Every structure is written in C-alpha cells, then in structure tokens.
Amino acid sequence: MCWYSFGNRPVRHEQQPEEGVAILQQDLINQFAVRFQDVECALRRIRTCVRKTPVLDVVGYPDISVRGLWLKCENLQHGFAFKARGACNAVMSLSDAEAQRGVVTHSSGNHAAALARAAIQRGIPAYIVMPTNSARVKLEAVRRLGIEPLLCEPTSAAREQMASEVQRTTGAILIHPFNHPDVIAGQGTAALEILEQVPDLDTLIVPVGGGGLLSGTLIAVKTLRPDVQVIGAEPEWADDAFRSLQSGKIEPALRTDSVADGLRTPLGSLTFPIIRSLVDRILCASEEQILRATGELARHCRLITEPSGVVPLAVLQQHPEVFADRRVVVLISGGNLDDPGLITGSLSSGLQAD
Questions:
Q1: In contact, 167 and 129? CB cutoff 8 Å
Q2: CB 3.0–4.6 Å: which of 131, 137, 247, 258 could bond 154 by disulfide?
Q3: Percent of the chain at pLDDT above 70?
Q4: Nearest CA to 300 among 313, 318, 285, 287?
Q5: Secondary element (H or E) of residue 68
C-alpha cells in the first residue's frame, strides 16, 4: 500500500458533503478500474520522473469574469504534455520480466513521445505506432529520442492492427494511450498537485479526448474534494464525450478535422464509466474560440500551447455564465504547437499595442 500526504499544508473544505453522501460516492469510486490508492501510488512512483508543474495565477485576462483564475501548466511538463505522467507510471509499474519484453503503443499525439521517453528511462525497447497524418512536431519528438515511428494509415483500425502485429512479433507489452489503469492513475497525479497548490479552488476544467486525464482527475478530486466541480472540455467538432453522456454509451467521433488533434479520440471502456458517474458536466468550444484562446494565451501570458491543450480555457471564455464568481483552475494539457502561425499574429499585435 502506498500513501501520499499533503505534508503540513491543510486542504480547506469550504463545502463539506454530508457524511452519508461522501461514503456512497467513495463506494462508487472503489468500483472502477482505478482507485484513489492507485493515484497515490502513482505519485510516489513517478515523483523523480516527472516535473511538479507550476500553477500560475492570472489577473485581467480578456473576456473572463471569475473570482480567481489559475493555470496548471502541464505544457511545461517533460515532453511538454501531461502524458509523461501516465506513461511513466505504466512503464515503471511493469515487473522486470514484463519490462524486458519492451513496450508498444499506438498514438498520434503526445503519448507516443511520452512512452518512448519512459522506456528509455527504464532501459527497455519501445515500439511506437503513429498514423501518417500525425503532427510533424509529434513525429519529430519521437525521432529525437532515437526511435523511428512505425507509420500506419490514419484510422483507429489500422493503428490497432499494426500495434497488435508488433505485439505478436516482439512480445512487447501494450500501453494504451488512455484506456489503461496505470495510465489513468498516472494522469490523476496532476490533480493531486492542483489540490495542494490551489486548496481553495471550487472549479477545475480539464480537456477530454480518450478520457485518461479526466478520469484520473475525477478519481483524485472526487475522493479528496467532492465539493469541487470538475468540468470536461472538448471541441464542438469532436464532441463525442458530450454525446456519450447524453446517450449513456460510448459514441464515436463524427469528424476528425478539429484543430485540437489530441482530442479527436472517443472515450474508452475504462474511462467512460468513471466520467459518466463522476463528471459534473462537459462543455464544448468552437474551433474559432480554440484558435483565439491559443493566440491569446501566448499574447497575455507568454505561454505556448497546442490547440488541444487550451480547450479548457476556450470553454471558460465561451461559457462565462457557468463560471461567474467561481475560483477556477484551468488545466493546460500540452504545448507541442505544430503551426507557429497560430500565435505569431497575436504576439505581433500584442507587441505593437505595448
């Protein structure tokens, strides 16, 4: 059993739930593939492998009227994305016998480089399957680590088929980008840090694609602070999580052209039950708002983010009535920007205004 402590710094509970409600919710959480103890263990396991990323307080951000605003900057994580957490936890959880077989994954995004880095840290082989339409910056991130991606057609079936073939021929262990208990638990460690860094928050906005980050966040937050509102954020053009909550089953992505390429993936069999049971709501942002937020964050905070990473901020701006008079933490999930043109205009106009 692993234990995590917030040290001597107390976490303030402004709205304590009734005891019976809290017990029922904890019983519910214990039924999932990932428990709170798994997130605690993950934090201890990966502490030397990942960064405790900063939380920045923001004042005077345009078109936002909240009581307080903080940015959890996972774009400053190793590999410039939160994915380092789940990948490291999964790789470091392997037994020695399993690790000797190496690891394989299929990913078009930041999980690819994150798993490659974790495998290098453990000294084991990594096989990375990526679709041909992956962002150039994400392909190059894997190559810089000395691993040549195995390219496949840009369909889920092609990715899974090639990964299965690699498994068959090499014996490598599959580490799924989000539908894996150790990955989910690792992603939840960012939420533990947030609760320590901003103990009096009342709202947390998290991006949702396959749901690994949101699921891990929900397990952590709803165990320690069930009063905190957790909101999933996704693009209107990739609103499968929003539709899944409405229908009660996992809905497929209807289009694959959102600028937020990291959030085009449908939910998984492990992530959907957690999100369906624990998330407060899911809100969507337009493509226009996502692009605007990407540029504005660079201009006003000098932070580089990829469109997928800034969707929570776009949701905050697009739905101001939901967040009025609240203390909000926005999780910025990644900074691997493939097209600098998305921010150069905002930066230039900002310099001219200055």
A1: no
A2: 131
A3: 91
A4: 313
A5: strand 68-73
Q: Hey, what are 176's tokens?
A: 């799924």
State the DSSP code for 133: T
**174 DSSP assignment:** E
Domains and CATH numbers, the chain: 24-82+182-348 (3.40.50.1100), 83-180 (3.40.50.1100)
Q: Which residue among the candidates 83, 108, 258, 346 is catalytic per the annotation?
A: 83
CB 275 within 8 Å of CB 232: yes
The verdict on whether 333 is a catalytic residue reads: yes
Helix extents (H) in 109-268 = 110-122, 136-143, 156-170, 181-187, 189-197, 212-224, 240-247
List, edge to edge, every strand of the sheet that includes 173-174: 150-152, 126-131, 103-106, 173-174
DSSP state of 334: B
- The 10s digit of each residue's pLDDT in 133-190 is 888 899 999 999 999 999 999 887 899 999 999 999 999 999 999 999 999 999 999 9
SS3 128: strand
Q: Which residues on neighbouring strands pair with residue 57, listed in sequence order?
A: 70
Mark out the alpha helices in the chain (DSSP H runs): 19-29, 36-46, 83-93, 96-100, 110-122, 136-143, 156-170, 181-187, 189-197, 212-224, 240-247, 271-278, 287-301, 307-318, 320-323, 341-353
Cα-Cα-Cα-Cα dihedral sign, residues 137, 140, 141, 142: positive
Rounded distance between C-alpha atoms, residue 348 and residue 336, angstroms: 20
What is d(CA 112, CA 177) in angstroms, rounded to the nearest whole number? 8
| The pLDDT value given to residue 279 | 98
Distance between CA atoms of residues 292 and 153, nearest Å: 31
Name the residue among 162, 167, 135, 140 with its Cα closest to residue 151: 162
Lookup result for tokens 């009581």: 67
pTM for the whole structure: 0.90
83 is catalytic: yes
Using DSSP's 3-state secondary structure scheme, residue 9 falls into coil
